[in-house]
Amino acid sequence: MKNLASKSKFVDWVRVSVTAGNGGAGGTAVQWNIATKYGVPCGGDGGRGGDVRMVASRSVSSLAELRTGYRALDGRLGKGQCLPGTNGEHVILAVPLGTVVKDEYGEVMG
Fold it and tell me: Which of 107, 97, 47 is nearest to 72 (CA)?
C-alpha cells in the first residue's frame, strides 16, 4: 500500500515564487523643428511589464505540474517618434478549481 501512494502524482500544496515583469524605460528622443530653436521631446513610453496570473481550470486536477518559479517578461524600451515599447508577455498558470493562493505572509490573495 505504501508503494502505491508514493507513485501518486496528486499534489495539493506547493510553494511557487512568481515575479512580474518590469516596465520598459521610456525612449529618449528629441524632434527638431526648423521653425523653432528648441527641440520637442518625442520619446515613446516604455512597455508595461507582464503579469503572472493564476486561472482555475477544470482540466487540471493537481498542482504537481507547477514549477517552483515563474517570471513574466519585461516591457521593452520606448522608441523615438513617440512610439511606445512593446508590453511584456503574461504568464498564465492553470490551477485546479478551489485553489487558494496566499502571499509570502500567509494572507489570501484575490
Answer: 47
Report which secondary-structure segment, H or E, holds 32: strand 30-32
Which grid coordinates belong to 21? 515583469
Residue 7: band (very low, low, confident or very high) from pLDDT cuts 50, 70, 90:
low
- What is the Cα–Cα distance from 7 to 18, expressed in whole angstroms? 28
List, in order, residues 6 or more apart from 31 with CB less than 8 Å away: 39, 40, 41, 42, 80, 81
DSSP 41: E
Could you tell me the pTM of the whole model?
0.73
Per-residue model confidence as pLDDT tens digits over 12-69: 899 999 999 999 999 888 888 777 778 878 889 999 999 999 999 999 999 998 999 9
Bridge partners of residue 40, in order along the sequence: 31
| Distance (Å, whole) CA 25 – CA 31 | 19
